[in-house]
Design a protein that fits this description.
Length: about 475
């Protein structure tokens, strides 16, 4: 399918280009909006300008690149790379070079860095440098926000191998950053930060932090140290080399290139921070695809808002949702609310002043089945587990998102016994997401509600399914 379309574009067929943008334009726009947002430009104003430029550029002299797409490559991957590059060069041109390199820290941050971040971060960075290049590549992906599955796929390894690597790294950091008497906590802290702690460990750490201010403080220090390491690792400009992957190879690599080419590319990505970042960026952009697919029958602004909200970019999500509301597109109000919810979940663990929750708790009439999941999400964010539970009757909870929200409402204090019962039931079921929620609930000590940080994590996790549920309703 791609081959005929590429052929058409290469020969300059206008119709082919129209098909190309109809099929992939929204992903390109979403990619541009997400990239601009990563550079602090979250408004919806600039993305269309960059998009237009991308279209012209491809027409003028980019088509030759498409011709190089081999059998492994996909047009979708390649256009996403080009859209990302177009947005990055737009930012570079529009911004003085000094501020691209590093946002100026506020005085408070400098002080913080000096006091807690800098020293331990220096030691940790030194220790990491001595590790194998593969570990560095893994950590780079980890720092960019890829999941274990995505990292394993990118580096051609298994999740078990990956967990082993991360575990050894966590132990090493714990050794250099803690006194011998304190290693158990330190290693648990670092295993959790590096994303290789078991569910039981993570639940134990979260409840311990709620109970013991000293553990909470230790954890905060470790988090800041890790944030400083991340800042150092990711803000250093990575030099381009002759071995760096070009757009087409990068696209094919992520699309699942095989054989000798793959081995060569993997070898390079493992040792080159620049290419590791490009791979990570492409994988993250492509997470928008399932949401965009669900949004196909809807208007463009709404689709992009939904895709940004589902992929951790609440700022452009809000900007595009507002545009969709002005156009009075169906579902625009709900996608706007979801984007607000996503932004709250991203800040201060999503806590809200009480008065903002009035919309949820003051309703006398029961919500319709359609609006119930969104209301429940909003109630859980405000900390009102009972309102959330009330919104979700048995009928709504038959749908998967409803079932997940109900379990989380029960576990957040509405009815802990019911939470245990639902969790045991979920473990017998087949849905992996609901199972993960359930495992977390079952790992809690008796009569203990789900700690806020874990609730926030699970809500962020279910947001894309909720968005797709909203989009799937008839217009
Ligand atoms: Zn490279």
């Amino acid at each position: 399918m791609d081959a005929a379309l590429i052929e058409g574009c290469v020969t300059g067929d206008q119709d082919a280009f129209e098909v190309l943008w109809r099929r992939h334009g929204r992903l390109c726009l979403t990619t541009i909006a997400r990239t601009l947002d990563s550079h602090g430009r979250g408004e919806a104003r600039e993305a269309p300008i960059v998009y237009e430029r991308l279209q012209k550029e491809l027409l003028r002299n980019g088509v030759g690149r498409l011709r190089k797409l081999g059998p492994d490559a996909s047009l979708r991957h390649c256009l996403t790379v080009l859209a990302h590059e177009a947005a990055s060069s737009h930012v570079e041109e529009a911004t003085p070079i000094a501020s691209v390199m590093r946002p100026a820290p506020t005085p408070a941050e400098i002080l913080l860095d000096d006091l807690v971040g800098l020293e331990p971060a220096h030691h940790v960075t030194q220790a990491l440098r001595k590790l194998s290049p593969q570990i560095m590549a893994i950590l780079r992906f980890e720092l960019r926000g890829l999941t274990s599955r995505e990292i394993a796929a990118a580096l051609g390894t298994t999740e078990e191998m990956l967990a082993g690597h991360l575990d050894r790294t966590a132990q090493k950091i714990a050794e250099i950053s803690a006194e011998p008497t304190d290693r158990t906590l330190a290693s648990r802290l670092w295993r959790s930060l590096l994303g290789c702690a078991s569910v039981e460990e993570r639940v134990a750490l979260a409840t311990l932090s709620e109970d013991d201010p000293e553990v909470a403080a230790r954890r905060e220090t470790a988090k800041r140290t890790w944030a400083a390491v991340r800042e150092r690792a990711l803000s250093v400009p990575q030099p381009h080399s002759v071995h760096c992957l070009d757009e087409v190879t990068l696209a094919s690599f992520v699309a699942g290139m095989r054989g000798a080419d793959r081995a060569r590319a993997e070898g390079h990505v493992t040792t080159c921070g620049r290419c590791a970042d490009s791979v990570a960026g492409l994988v993250l952009h492509l997470r928008a695809v399932p949401t965009l697919r669900a949004a196909e029958p809807h208007g463009e602004n709404l689709a992009i808002a939904a895709a940004c909200a589902a992929t951790d970019h609440p700022r452009p999500a809000l900007a595009y949702a507002e545009q969709a509301e002005r156009q009075e597109l169906p579902r625009a109000d709900e996608i706007h609310r979801v984007s607000m919810a996503r932004r709250r979940l991203a800040t201060s663990l999503g806590e809200l002043p009480r008065q903002e929750s009035s919309r949820v708790v003051s309703r006398d009439d029961l919500p319709t089945d359609d609006e119930a999941p969104l209301l429940a999400l909003e109630a859980l964010i405000t900390g009102d587990a009972s309102a959330a539970a009330q919104a979700l009757d048995d009928h709504v909870a038959k749908r998967l998102v409803g079932a997940r929200l109900r379990l989380l409402a029960m576990a957040s204090g509405h009815d802990l016994e019911e939470a245990t019962r639902l969790s045991e039931q979920a473990l017998e079921g087949t849905d992996p997401d609901l199972r993960r929620d359930a495992e977390m609930v079952l790992a809690l000590p008796d009569e203990r509600a789900l700690p806020r940080e874990l609730l926030v994590e699970r809500l962020v996790d279910l947001l894309p399914s909720l968005i797709r549920l909203i989009l799937s309703r008839p217009r």
